[in-house]
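Input sequence (75 aa), recorded before submission:
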Amino acid sequence: MIYGSLHTESKRDGQWNVQPLSPTSASKYYTCPGCGLEIAPGIAHVVAWRADGLMGETDDLAARRHWHAHCWKIK
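Predicted structure, token format:
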């Protein structure tokens, strides 16, 4: 299940698409690029990818990353 609605956020390095994920949608292990720690299955988190990348939407989506919600907030 999606936990929240897809939205765009401005960060220091540009515009980002952000999609919150619910614990039930988090079914794999990921490494948070903010802290380098693991995001385990069953942990709510956010997926983020560039909204303003130079190489186009397909490349931006392919480069998406899973972040702890706290790490994303302080990015």
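Checked by second reader. The chain has a mean pLDDT of 93.
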